[in-house]
Each structure stands twice: as structure tokens, then as C-alpha cells.
Amino acid sequence: MTVFKTSLRNFFAHKGRMALSAIAVMLSVAFVSGTLVFTDTMNTTFDKLFAITSADVTVSPSEEDEDDERPQSGKPAALPASVLAKVAATPGVEAAEGAVTSASVTVVNSKNKDIGASGGAPTIAGNWTRNELRSMEISSGNAPRGPTEVMVDAETADKQNLSIGDEVRTISAVGDFTTKIVGIASFKVTNPGAAVFFFDTPTSQRHLLGKEGLFTNITAEAADGVSNDQLKKDVGAALGGGYEILTAKQSADEGRKDVGEFLNVMKYAMLGFAGIAFLVGIFLIVNTFSMLVAQRTREIGLMRAIGSSRKQVNRSVLIEALFLGIVGSIAGVAAGVGIAIGLMELMGSMGMNLSTDDLTVKATTPIVGVALGVIVTILAAYVPARRAGRVSPMAALRDAGNPGDRKSGWIRAAIGLVLTGAGAASLYATTQADKASDGSMVLGIGVVLSLLGLIVIGPLLAGVVVRAISVVLLRMFGPVGRMAERNALRNPRRTGATAAALMIGLALVACLSVVGSSMVASATDELDKSVGADFIVRTETGQPIVPQAYEAMKKTDSIDHITQYKDVTAKVTAPNGKAAKETVVAADPTYPQDLRRKVVDGDLNAAYGKGSMSVGDEYAKKHGVKVGDTLTVDFIVGDTVQLKVRAITSDDGALDQGVKFISTATLQQHVPADKMPQNLMLLASAKDGQEKEALTALKASLEAYPQYKVQNQADYKQTLKDQIGQLLNIVYGLLALAIIVAVLGVVNTLALSVVERTREIGLLRAIGLSRRQLRRMIRMESVVIAVFGALLGLGLGMGWGMAAQKLLALEGLKVLEIPWPTIMTVFVASAFVGLFAALVPAFRAGRMNVLNAIATE
């Protein structure tokens, strides 16, 4: 009990000094808790939606049939009306109806503005059925009753300013058709962001599936006394094989599984960044308790002299850590709920609607948050606590500081050198890997070992690097600069730990900057070398291009030619008898001039002839394929045909690596028209000297199809750069948490250092050091520590990035680019971080009473 009271007294005696450590714990726990609450809320939202929309039994085409429709035909796999009749006649079925649903549509208003969903949510078109009443209700108007009528969901109507009487045009693979809004339906549960448009059944069938009498799935309601499992069994017996039949629970589980994969990626990525923040926070906590123990050395000596054991002293420090962990963790869990709500608002601005009515805080969330925060805090405080327990009473009473252990310093340096060397060797081994898959594991080992090595060896490096930095930054300020240098070098272990916290975040920033810049530079270089087409037409979402848009482009003046680019699934059998499902690309004969492929053997132009194809050199080596050999190609949605290999192309590049090519004429010959895939993109070239006119004309021809972008090579390069830049900005935003915690570490270290040097500061002020000079000294010390951490972090990160780029080079991204403007900006920003971190400690030091400071023991 005495130990507990002593710990409690010490904790509240230093509550100001503990505050920043508690904030670090709080931020880390808040990010973990916020991530869990946010993903649990998303799961709740989708669970409710899937549960309420799932019919008792749903009949769909088999998974194999759905895969057959994958070649971007724009029309989902369908069931004939005869299936509906069989289901309806099955004993135990109360009611059955056919549904038509397609997500391969674009809907525009009268101004040709896309009014579909945004932020990755789907735009869904289909027929209005009784099953929709499970999740929706008509809030105004009426359901569609004819070919010119449509009903829209309330969220989309509100977001796009739609009202009854407005006309909308729906673009599908079958064609365009215009309808007038006659009704608005509201969701009974939260709509995560999908835009939904309902037509009557015949209209949906004609314009989404190509003809009447087809359905994408059949829903059945069980009669009284019939379970869903029994109904599934009876329907299966009535239909025979070849269908996927799911109960309501199974349908909901399938939906959860699909969404869960995406949510898990998001969840674990965010938890990974929270883990980085925890790692940085450990350094802050270690430094805080190390300095508090050092400042209380005489007090600890007195406790030992009057009978306290090592275990009691140790336990006293750990109890303080326990208080810190509990306070910070509880605050973090509460803040995590706020972060989750903030993330929901952010997702709402991006198009995904999440209601706070579904806010889900599971019992495990605060338990995990508090347990994690407390455990990490106690582990971080263990080394300082152990060091406090080892202080002998006489040494503590004789010396106000905590004696250093020279032997442990040398051991630490040796371990650090070994780890750093092993990390460097692993990074070098990464650059020598023959396959990216093999090198990725070695890279991970190299990253971990080199990071641990620099963390351990930080105090040794501080003595060298800080002196070098001081020569450049501090010596010009005379005695004040020299004192700042000596203060930073006074305790190399403390300086190294403080800088290491900043180093971790900046290393990741530098690494990702190098990788991102190299990816952009490699893609740009590849485009310059390989792409001969003047224009590229595609969608940002990767949706295929509907036939009517292609037909509109063909009528464009100033265009020399347009090259189609489609893909289709086929079972390809090599001469050695090995067969596998492969993606085969079909393109027009002009493709070789629009995308210059390096040919290893044969003639690529000949591969676009009748009964011909090309393969990549890796496939050729693996299966012993040579020019002139014949491959058996079984188009999943068409015929089986023998095609002769006319060319082998190099896989040494990022574009179309490993692709098997045939001509569009060959594809049309062996795949039915209604199964023909749409173009994934179109390549176009202008007539000589008419590039500007052609670009304007192409954009005009696609004005009615706003989902497609016409880009010249410069536009395409900028799009790639923007996409990678947006991804990096998101990552940098998440890493900002770790950097904020690192800045708190610098502030805490300086604040405690000022307290530790109170008497010294008083003496300096007494012999003439002005307040301004004192504040400058502390600011310079902070800048040196921040710049030291930046140099370590940026250097380490660039090393990681260069090693990672060597792996990307094996995938065709061969250009290494160091983003020096970004690196220099981060480096300069680090110095400002140091200045910012020193503001409060420097201000407090300047306000000290000189006489009181001198009298401090």
C-alpha cells in the first residue's frame, strides 16, 4: 500500500510532465479504437442491408456461368423465364418473381452529367419487384409502369437535385434509352452510397439484358411452415443442377464476405499505421520515465536507505506507468469514437453514406484499446523502472544524476552495428533478387533489421552526426550555439531515442516518396517508348466502353484509325499438354503501331492474321512454345479453336506484360455477338498534323458519354501522377499521426530537460545569459535533434525505397527517381518542427526566477 501511495503521489506531482506522454498514448489508442468502431459500423450498415434485402431463397446462374460473362460484355449472366415458372410451381413456394439487376450502366441527366454513385459505390439499374419492398418504400410518386418511366432512390434524387418529371438517360451495353422520373423510393435502412434506378420488368429486360424473358435471379418466398433450408432443397430438386441456390442467410453471408474483404484491407492498413504510432510513442514514454527516474535519483536513494527494496522501487515506477496507461487509454477510447464519426463524415463527402444511427461500439473495442495502451506503456517503462531499482543507495545520495553504464553502452553499440549491417546486407540482397516475389520477403527483413539497428545505434551516431550538424547550423551563433550542441550531446541515449521517434515516420515518408516517384517516372518512360497512339479513351473506374460510344468515335473527322482493345477468358492448352484459364487480349491490326511491343521472335503483325496469335516470352519459356507451334484455345463463351503462334513478345516492360494477343476478327469469328466483350480501352491516332483538331473532335463525339475520358499522352501521364499522388497523400495523412507523436516526444524531452537543468539555467542567467539567448539555446537544441532524426529517417527511407524499386524493375518499372524536392521539403520542415516543439519549453525556461533556480537542488 505504501508503494501504491508513493507512486500515486509521484504521478500527480509530475502530472504536467506526464501529460504529453498521456496524449501520445491517447492518440495511438484513439486511432486503434476509431478504426475498430468505424469498421464495425460499416459492417453493421451492410449487415442490416444484406439481411433485409435477402429473399427466403434466391436462384442465380452458377458461379461458372457468371465467370463466363466476365469478358466485359456489359450484360450480366441471365436465367430464362422457364426457370421462374419451375420455381413458382415448386411445392412450398408462396410466391416467386424474377429480378433484373445490372451494375454496368451509366445514368446521366438532361445536361449529360453523370448522376450515378461516386466514391466507388455502384450505380444499379433493375426492375421494381415486391422483394424491393423489404428495404425500400415509395415516398413520392409511383412505381414505373411503362417503357418511359423510372423511379430513383431518395438519396440520389437529393444529391443530384432530381425531382418527379425530370428526364434521365440510361447508357448500357444494349443501347441508350430515355425515361422520365415518376417516383422516388426511400431506403428503410442506411444506403451505403449506391445509386439505384428502377424500371418496369420488360424495359429492364430489353435495355439491360438485350431481350425480354430473361432474369438475373429468381426470388422465392416460403409458404407458412416451410423453412428456408427445406425450400432450397425443394427448389434444387425441381431445377436440377447448374444453378446457385442460396437461402436468405447464405445470401447475406455472401454479401458480407464480399464487403468484408474490402473492409479487412482498410481495417488492417489503418491498424498498421496505429501500430507505427504506438512504436513512436514507446520512445516518448521511455524518455519520459528515464528522465523522471534520473531527476528523482536522490529521492530513490533515500527510499533505498530507509529500507525500500529494488522490487519496491521498480514496482513504484511501473505503477506510475500503469496510471499513465489507464488515463491515456480511457481518453483514447473516447476520442476513438470521435475519430470514427469523423471518418464516417469523410466517407460521406466521398459518396459513401454511413449513419450515426448505426454507430457500433462493441464491448471488445474499449477492452482492446485499454489493454493495448496499458501493456505498451508498462513495457516502455520497464527499462527505466529496472534501471531505477538498480541504483545503489550511496551512489544515489552522492550523485543527483543516474550513472551511466559504459559496458552496456558498448554492448548496445555492438548490437546496433550487427543489426544495421544485417539490414544493409538484406537490402543489398533485395537488389540482386531474380523474382519480385522472392525479393519481397528479403526486403521486409532488411527494413526491420535496418530500422532496429539505427534505433539501437542511435546514441553512438548522435555523437558524430550532431557534431557535424552543429558545425553547419550552430557554431555561427557563438557560445549560445556551442551550449546548445553540448546539451544535445550531454545524454546521447536520450537524444538518440528522441530522434528515433521522428526517424520512423520520416523513413516511411521517404520510402513511399521514392517508390511513388519511381512508379510515375517508369510509367512515363514506358509510355514515351512504347505508346505510339495519340489518344487513349477509357474510364477512371475501369468500366468497359459501350459499343455505341465506339460507333460515335468512328465518325470523328481528323482521326486516322481507332484500335479496339478487348479481353476474354479462354482455356489455353500448350503443346506440352498443360492447360490453364488465361486472359486473351483481342486487338485490331493497328495495335502494333499504337503500342510498340518488343518482339523476341516472329512477326507481331502476322499474329493478327486468321488463325494466329502471339504469346509472352515467359509463357513461351515455361511451356517450350516456339514460333509456328499450335495452341488450343477454348473460348469460355465461344468455340474451341487451334491458333498458330506467329510471334513471341518480350515481357520486359510494364505495359501488357505476358499478354496473349489475337485479332478482333478472330474473336468475332469464334465468340457469338451477344457474348462479345466490350472494349476495355480505345487507342486512336490523328491524321498527320491534325492532333489538336482530332482531340477536340473526339471529345465532341463522346460528349453524350461523360463516363469516358479522352486523353492525349500528356494528359494520361498527369492522370497517373495524380492517382499515385492521391494515394501517397492518404498514406502521408495516416503517417502524420506518428509524426505528431514524435513531435510530442521532442516537446516532452525538452520540457523535462529544462526541469533537469533548472539550477544550471539559473547559474547561466546569473552570469549574464539573457532570456532571449536562453530561449535560442533551447530552440537550437530542439532543431539539432529534429534535423538529426530527419537525416536518419530520410537516409534510411531512401535506402528502403531504392531497394523496393529494384523489385519494381523486375515487374517492368525500371526507372529510379529520387523526389529531391519532396525530400528537401521534408528536411526543411523537420527543422521547423524542431522550432515548434521548443516553443513552450523555451518560454517556460525564460520565465524562471533566477534565485529560485539557483537554489534548486
Main sheet overview = 10 strands, mixed
Range of helix content: 55-70%
Distance between the termini: 29 Å
Structural class: alpha+beta
> What would you call the shape?
globular
What is the count of distinct domains?
4
Could you report the average pLDDT, rounded to the nearest whole number? 85
Q: Low-confidence stretches at least 5 residues in length (pLDDT < 50)?
A: 67-71, 400-405
Rg value: 34 Å
Helical stretch tally: 27
Give the total of beta strands: 24
Percent of sequence in beta strands = 15-25%
Keywords: Cell membrane, Membrane, Transmembrane, Transmembrane helix
Subcellular location: Cell membrane
Pfam families: FtsX, MacB_PCD
Transmembrane segments: 268-294, 317-343, 363-385, 410-429, 441-474, 495-515, 730-755, 782-803, 823-843
Explain what you see.
The protein has 857 residues and is α+β, with helices and mostly antiparallel strands. The protein has 4 domains: 1-52 and 264-403, no CATH class; 63-241, no CATH class; 462-534 and 713-857, no CATH class; 544-706, no CATH class. It is built from 27 helices and 24 strands. The strands form 4 sheets. Strands 15, 16, 17, 18, 19, 20, 21, 22, 23 and 24 form a 10-stranded mixed sheet that branches. Strands 4, 5, 6, 7, 8, 9, 10 and 11 form an 8-stranded mixed sheet that branches. The longest helix has 48 residues, at 248-295. It is globular, with a radius of gyration of 34 Å.
